[in-house]
Structures are given as C-alpha cells and as structure tokens.
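Data card: per-record layout.
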Amino acid sequence: MAVVIRLSRLGTKRKPHHKIVVTEQHTPREGRFIEQIGYYDPSKKPALVEIKEDRVLHWISVGAKPTQTVRSLFRSKKIPLKVKKRG
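The structure for this 87-residue chain is written out next.
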C-alpha cells in the first residue's frame, strides 16, 4: 500500500479549492482519504494555504510521498521534506 499526500478538488466550475489529503495511491481524486491535513484556495489573492505541520511531518516520517504540487506548497510554508525517522 503506497501512501501519498495530494490535493482533492472541491468547488464549482472556475471556482476551485482543494483539500490536502493523505490517501492511498490508487484511490480516485475525490475518493476516500485517510486524513485531511490542510486546505488550499488558489482563487484568493494571495492564495490561502493552511497546513497542519505536525501531521505532515508524521506522514512523511512513516513514508508518505507528496505530489509535486503539494511539495511546492510545503516549500512555500517552509515545511521540511526530510524528517529523521524515529527509532
């Protein structure tokens, strides 16, 4: 089971906003997810990004891989992408 951190699209046509979710790799984009760890609204100026940093660090430490878009959001919020594994 490969776990990824990716965006799940919400909103209407031409008014998107996204949840940042942890999910299995093969589930549909708007399908079931394990945990919601943030929110992204690109239609606001500047774009609204809210991320639960402690949960992101937990999921990265257990092996979840963020997508390119989510990785760039993490960089904009200065969240480290490499975490020392516990143990």
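Known properties of this structure: The mean pLDDT is 90. The chain is about 20% helix and 40% strand.

See the next section for split statistics.
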